[in-house]
Design brief:
Elements (H helix, E strand, L loop, with lengths): L1 H19 L18 H8 L9 E3 L1 E3 L1 E23 L5 E6 L6 E2 L4 E5 L2 H43 L5 H40 L2 E3 L4 E6 L6 E2 L6 E16 L11 E6 L7 E8 L9 E9 L10 E18 L4 E3 L2 E8 L2 E6 L1 E5 L3 E6 L6 E3 L12 E3 L6 H13 L8
Parallel strand pairs: 1-21
Antiparallel strand pairs: 2-20, 3-10, 3-14, 4-6, 4-9, 5-8, 6-7, 8-10, 10-13, 11-12, 11-14, 12-13, 14-19, 15-16, 16-17, 18-19
Helix pairs in contact: 3-4
Length: 418
């Protein structure tokens, strides 16, 4: 039994060796036998650049001049032009609160009221004190007039020798005392008037008004609640203009300046674009992030944009109206070089280029191409230098390209793909 197994193994090995080393085999390590003994070299050439791959169907486009706009895209949340917390200037119980969530309010419009009965009573009391001060002042002024007349009479009698110096001095002292009494009464009157003015200001502060034009974005208290001097009653947001604060990286800092146009998109209005401008750019960079703050303002006349919306903003970094351009899908990176593929008959030829600006559809060409040349677009990413191609949209050559591709496909082992 062992002998039979050994014989079977030997026969199988011999058959495999014959198959591997048979004349004309392409799997042998040595050159395959051919009519001229060069079949091995011919096979090697058949697997070389371009000839071993089937012809690829590609589209082409001309190198032409056109406008190229390079954009910078930033994202962030929208905020209102002004967001103000409304707080009362005096503490007290809310007697009324007329503004509700979402209501539109104007600057100076009364939106709440603090109870003011106690303050009104204090104002009345102060006004009564003011009347007393006025009466006192009137009395003091009358007394002053009397003292002045007495002093003048005593001085006249003294000049005639009918009165003593002491009597005149007493009259002058009484006059000076009357003057001081009038001054005191006037000060008391002014003090009471100042107190009344203060109470009236406090009384007016019980009327809570909106500090800005906008909408009520938040309401924290209801009518009847007690509000302290620092209690936020509600929040008013001005959304006539919305803003977005974003960060600008260092390489784009010199390209984005105040006044640059911005196109804003939000998920709430798909396919719609809102126009804005860069209003401010910070003059300093954050040492931690190496970015500068940038503020973008977007007019919002219809109040459609709301604070808190997530926005994508496209900024115009640079614009060239007459640049030499190619379609964006024509530019590829091959073996560490950037370039395009040119159709050279039925072969793709790699052409290095130096690029400039680029947008969603076009790339500016600075060096390497001239206007009017055609470059491969669709299919360029799959090409290698020297690959066979079938151009589909060459001017006057689409049918010829298909026929040439058919011949190449029928003779894949032919020289040069013919």
């Amino acid at each position: 039994m062992k002998k039979v197994l050994v014989i079977a193994v030997l026969l199988a090995g011999a058959a495999g060796a014959y198959y591997y080393y048979r004349p004309g085999s392409t799997t042998a390590t040595g050159p395959a036998a051919g009519p001229d003994g060069a079949g091995g070299r011919g096979g090697g050439m058949g697997m070389g650049r371009g000839s071993g791959r089937p012809a690829l169907t590609v589209d082409t486009a001309p190198v032409a001049r056109g406008e190229v706009i390079e954009y910078i895209t930033v994202v962030g949340n929208l905020v209102g032009q002004a967001t103000v917390d409304v707080v009362p200037r005096v503490a007290g119980r809310l007697d009324s609160l007329t503004a509700r969530l979402g209501d539109r309010v104007a600057r100076g419009q009364q939106i709440a009221k603090i109870e003011d009965r106690e303050l009104q009573q204090q104002v009345k009391q102060a006004e009564q004190s003011l009347e007393v001060n006025r009466a006192t002042l009137k009395q003091r002024e009358s007394d002053l007039q009397l003292r002045k007349t007495t002093m003048a009479r005593q001085q006249e009698l003294l000049s005639k020798g009918l009165q003593t110096r002491q009597a005149v001095e007493d009259a002058e002292a009484a006059y000076n005392s009357a003057v001081a009494a009038v001054d005191l009464a006037q000060a008391q009157l002014a003090q009471t008037q100042a107190r009344i003015d203060e109470l009236k200001i406090t009384l007016s502060n019980t009327k809570i008004v909106s500090p800005v034009d906008g909408f009520v974005g938040r309401r924290n208290l209801d009518q009847g609640a007690f509000a302290g001097a620092n209690t936020v009653i509600l929040q008013v947001v001005d959304i006539s203009t919305v803003r977005m604060v974003s960060n600008l990286v260092e390489k784009d800092f010199k390209r984005i300046t105040q006044g640059v146009q911005a196109e804003v998109e939000v998920d709430a209005f798909p396919g719609e674009t809102f126009s804005g401008t860069v209003s401010r750019v910070a003059p300093v960079f954050d040492a931690a992030t190496r970015t500068a703050s940038m503020e973008i303002e977007v007019p919002n006349p219809g109040y459609r944009l709301k604070p808190g919306m997530y926005a994508r903003v496209r900024l115009t970094a640079e614009r060239k109206p007459d640049a030499l351009t190619v379609p964006r899908n024509a530019v590829v990176d091959s073996e560490g070089r950037r370039g395009v593929f040119l159709p050279d008959g039925q072969t793709a030829k790699f052409q290095p280029v130096r690029t400039g600006l680029q947008d969603n559809t076009s790339v500016e060409i600075l060096e390497g191409l001239t206007e009017g040349q055609r470059v491969i677009t669709t299919g360029a990413l799959a090409l290698r230098d020297g690959d066979r191609i079938t151009p589909m949209n060459m001017p006057g050559g689409a049918a010829q390209g298909r026929r040439g591709g058919g011949r190449a496909g029928a003779q894949p082992g032919g020289r040069g793909g013919q």
